[in-house]
Amino acid sequence: MTIIAALVVALVALVPIMTGLWLQQKRTGNAGVVDIAWSFGTGIAGAWLALVPIEEAASYAPRQWLVAAMAALWSARLGYYILARNRGRGEDPRYRAYREQHGARADAKLFAMFQFNAVFALIFGALMMIAARNPTPAFAWTDALGLAIWLAAVGGETAADRTLERFKADPANRGQVCDRGFWRYSRHPNYFFEWLHWFAYVAIAAGGGFGYPWAWLTLAGPLAMYVIVNRMTGIPPTERHLLVSRGEAYRAYQARTNAFFPGPVRRP
Fold first, then answer.
1. Last residue of a domain, one of 102, 133, 164
2. Are residues 129 and 2 part of one domain?
């Protein structure tokens, strides 16, 4: 199979899945399923693209399996976390606000969003494929670095998610702002660690050196993720909702805590 054929197969699989889920959200009124679909879709696409035989691409099988495992485990953790978080809670406030903003055009806009997520899943999966196809015929220190970044990022995101879930589960914290654990040093440590995770594939791809020009493309992963969470569907709508639901408590939290990159607590 050629690289183009592999990418087309992945996209042909992703588009109808996203279309079916868009139809589901029309019935349920819950567009949050797109986040679950993106998480699982990206991981499955990335793992498959890492392993599928490519005619014109040299490869090193142990590295392919390493990247495929990283993609699958990252995807499973994130997807199941979002699935469990959303179960029984109704639609994410970001999507409720999106529906209110677009009114009668909301379903059409959501259809485009679901399809964009199919394309984004393919793009991020392709970046995993680039890392997996680094042709260096042995493990290198960059592979170990990539795995270390992956472990730190996925472990950090898991810890941040669990801290927030425990905080929300305590009735005494209703209406309060979580500033425990990583949340003390960043208002969105889950997004920070998700961004950091994409550098794992940059490191692994970089092991191919200047003889592997595709490696540079993996920088698109952390760059795109930074823009998405800081300028688009991540932090901005989340903070607008929290300012409404938490009020002055959240404004005080904003004043003392970095939005994205962890840093020391600022004193008034």
1. 133
2. yes
Helix (H) / strand (E) element for 146: namely helix 141-169
Q: Give tens-digit pLDDT for 116-154.
A: 999 999 999 999 999 999 989 899 999 999 999 999 999
Q: Are 94 and 237 in contact (CB under 8 A)?
A: yes
My answer on whether 203 and 228 are in the same domain is yes
Whose tokens are 């494929």? That residue is: 129
Whether 78 and 170 map to the same domain: the answer is: no
Residues 157 and 233 sit within 8 Å (Cβ to Cβ): no
**Look-up of token digits 């959200």:** 25
Q: Which of 133, 166, 197 is the last residue of a domain?
A: 133
Assess whether 3 and 31 both reside in one domain. Answer: yes
Beta strands in 58-176 (DSSP E): none
Q: How far apart are CA 175 and CA 144, in angstroms?
A: 43
Full residue range of the structural domain in which residue 205 is found: 142-268
Would you say 47 and 72 are in contact if contact means Cβ atoms under 8 Å apart? yes
What pTM does this model have?
A: 0.93
Is the pLDDT reported for residue 56 higher than 90? no
Distance CA 90, CA 107 (A): 17
> Which two structure tokens, joined as six digits, stand for 66?
């390493």
Q: Are 130 and 59 in contact (CB under 8 A)?
A: no
Location of structure tokens 């042909």: 12
* Domain count for the chain: 2
CB 203 within 8 A of CB 219: no
